[in-house]
Amino acid sequence: MFDRYEGGEQAVLVHVDFSAESDREDLDELKMLVDSAGVTTLAVLTTRRSAPHPKFYIGTGKAEEVAEAVRMLGAEVVIFNHALSPAQERNLERLFECRVLDRTTLILDIFAQRARTHEGKLQVELAQLKHLSTRLVRGWTHLERQKGGIGLRGPGETQLETDRRLLRDRINHIEKRLEKVAKQREQGRRARSRREVPTLSLVGYTNAGKSTLFNGLTSADVYAADQLFATLDPTLRKVQLADVGPVILADTVGFIRHLPHDLVAAFKATLEETREANLLLHVVDAADERASDNTQQVNAVLKEIEADDVPVLMVYNKLDKLDDVAPRIDRADDGKPVAVWLSAQKRLGLELLFQALSERLAEDTFIATLQLPPAQGKLRSELFSLHAVAKEQIDEQGQWLLWVRMPQVDWQRLNKQNQGAPERFIVSGAADKVL
């Protein structure tokens, strides 16, 4: 179904250095993408332009230079570090006499290689089909005429029209199946919300070390490697935090500059975990010289998926690659943790991250020990209905001792409904170790 190549092919890379900052791509990142796809780089050709050439994207002279390199080196594919139009791909393939891939197709291929779950495969297939739908004409120029002859009369469709219809039907089918997946994820989020279990979501630029950190925090065995998009399928695990209790930690797909829109749309159900989280852990490769730019790219994607208003805790990873930098917590003027410096691979500073998470989540959580007289049975019932009671005992005077934990908004609403009565029964502002 997909126009994909197998690993081990020989490729010539093409990179254009545009004068406009918004159009620029990173050449080193292209090399990492190509390596992640399992392709061997034979040569890298670069050029400067103020705007793309309408026919070849690069200039005519540079296109001839690339064609000559392809012939001399025996390259099987030419990979552009930019998004090409279908017409530009077609023109370049005629000139180069080999396959031409753009940045979007390369990323989609890497995603197809890494998808493991049923949902992940569906999401990648949907993105690939949408991208492929604008490029069908390349493969069917010899079948453009309508069908005819005995047994073939009637439909009045060209082969291209038939393929487009089949593609459209497949896209609709996948979208319906992904809608069911989205509903299942929504049910899971509602169940966690009813139990008042906070959700933390790891976000960050690809290869920032999110999966390694996830494994360090949860003792999980998620695949982690020094390559782009090592993680594709989201993983959820439960973590215990002091003074907060159980929380759900989600490891998500890494972001990248100019992430293809088809991918963002296809992974909508997965990215909902990020949008609905209580706190985002924005993991940054502190040793990367492009760390600041990568952070801006992640923030741009968060805005695109409408998750830019979720509270964020910065996590600067890989400090073991920096000189004279020790694990630490950076705090705002009010003392609230805003950043943690650590090394997930060396397991340095993980305890500081646990401390910062407890502080950030505890500020939104009411934790206390209450002593209720028998006459307050209604209030006790309300606390149980909110799933706020972690432990209950009866003291020598026959009064209830309740260790409670709930969101601050629920506690404030309970006080308002009972005209401040719950506040009078607080014995301790901390709920001891039982929570």
Automatic annotation (TrEMBL):
Its main location: cytoplasm. Mg(2+) binds at S211, T231. InterPro entries: EFG_III/V (IPR035647), G_HFLX_dom (IPR030394), GTP-bd (IPR006073), GTP-bd_M (IPR032305), GTPase_HflX (IPR016496), GTPase_HflX_N (IPR025121), GTPase_HflX_N_sf (IPR042108), P-loop_NTPase (IPR027417). Keywords: Coiled coil, Cytoplasm, GTP-binding, Magnesium, Metal-binding, Nucleotide-binding. GTP binds at residues 204-211, 229-233, 251-254, 317-320, 343-345. It holds the Pfam family GTP-bdg_M. Its cofactor is Mg(2+). One of its GO terms (cellular component) is cytoplasm. It comes from the Bacteria. Residues 164-191 form a coiled coil. NCBIfam families: GTP_HflX, PRK11058.1. Belongs to the TRAFAC class OBG-HflX-like GTPase superfamily. HflX GTPase family. GTPase that associates with the 50S ribosomal subunit and may have a role during protein synthesis or ribosome biogenesis. HAMAP family: GTPase_HflX. This is GTPase HflX. It comes from Gallaecimonas pentaromativorans.
